[in-house]
Give the backbone structure.
Amino acid sequence: MKNQKIMTSLNDQELARLEALNKLREIGIEPFPAEAFEVSHLSEDIQSKWSEEVEGDYMEVSLAGRLMMKRIMGKASFGELQDSAGRIQIYVQRDDICPEEDKTMYNDVFKKLLDIGDYIGIKGFVFRTRLGEITVHVKELTVLSKSLRVLPIVKTQIDKETGKETVYDAFKDPDARYRMRYVDLTVNEGIKDIFIKRSRMISTMRSYFDQKGWLEVETPALQPIHGGAAARPFKTHHNALDMPLYLRIANELYLKRLIVGGFDGVYEIGKMFRNEGMDRTHNPEFTSMEIYVAYKDYIWMMEMVEDLLEHITRSLHDGIAEVEYDGKIINFAGPYERMSMYESIEKYTGTDISNMDEAALGKFCKSQGVSIDATMGRGKLIDELFGEKVEAHLIQPTFITDYPIEMTPLAKKHRIKEGLVERFELFVNGKEIANAYTELNDPIDQRERFEEQLKLAAKGDEEAMVLDEDFLRSIEYGMPPTSGLGIGMDRLAMLMTNKKSIQEVLFFPQMRPEQKK
RNA sequence: GAUUCCGUAGCUCAGCUGGUAGAGCAACGCCCUUUUAAGGCGUGGGUCCUGGGUUCGAGCCCCAGCGGGAUCACCA
């Protein structure tokens, strides 16, 4: 009865696969065997290393993977086996896999009961076909796992005259691809590479930091006070403590406590959560890297970022420090251009705003066609102006330095320039990808800045920071001069893999629940 | 949140001024021992996203909803 219920929800192709599975069992072949299958080679090993000269080394190979194509021609067939590294053609002859009278293994199992997507193991030898394709001649075939669903079969034809490539039946609906990433990864070439690059990007960064002697740490993701950034948090509740907790929007205040505790350098690569809108550069959970190094300032940090990004880019792109993004060549070899925020506005509007007061600035924004409202203070006006007039021009990596104090409550006041803080952001392709300060370690100044934030909150600013008394206590014990940096790892991954949507660099981007059928 | 486009077979898509649903691949059956989008002959397969409405008649028109994409806004 249970079976019947399943049956009615299946289409004809899925029914055929279920029947094939039952028939395999009838023949005495377990479609989901428990035994391990020993693999000697990956498809890629053979494709790249085999030649007639070393033929002798490839007389007994065993491979495992999904059967992705069958081309049956009577008593012999070709197929394609896809493993973790790629694909290789296989050649299956009836009398080879069925040396005895009984031809079931070929006539029934291979020709009829095996479907595209099934996992098989093969043993045989490598040869080259008349048409020149390196192929495994199968002597022994093992069913490793049955696939009950139909994979979309992507086929590519290359026109022999024009060399033009045509793709048939691409599995390209973004909705389906993100919801069923396992199918996307199986069927679409190049998807794995994105995530392999992402993984290597992170491991390269980690080993760079480790080599400098900085310590990778972990700090709470569940926080009683959501500090360190201006954003709306996710709220949850702990039952045993009967208290509200927030998913972290940043880890800055915890990492600084560790600097107070005496580490010279600490960093954390981890998930942050922000309860805000989603678009092609925002996912509710995202990966950030934050690092704090004692006895340094933001000028030192700019040099570190140049070296780090150049190093990562080279290690991901065969030693080259350039990436192509959105049709542009972006060069990550340092040094990068540096401009103060005021200089950048002057460069792209022709006007020096450094001495304007709030009223004059408001007037200037209007004259530039920047829409403003009455609640905006001086800092916010500058930020708007920058966003409208400057950001889009910053294609090559560019440091923008020295921000108005109002919007940056955790950065140290500028050593010379009144009303500014020692902060930089790194822009690439018109987008911010890194943010750094000379950290504020003066506890009295820090308390005043928090109090300013409280006033903003009282005025209704939902994103104003909350005062963290324990954090203040920690720096009252004494925090060394420190520079800190944050990098949005997803956005960096987008740059490194030439993807325009954050969903393309996340295995499982956040989605609405699937509609029930 | 706003605007806009899209949702038809397992996949990719067509479907005219409204007339009762099609193609290729995939599936099923038969033929074929070096093919490669293999080929040839034949067969089956649909909640046209959901719910209302207009109409003699809706995949198509109208309304509402669901899901997704793009652009903008918001957001370090």
User: Anything to note?
Assistant: Residues 294 and 482 of chain A are 4 Å apart (CA to CA).
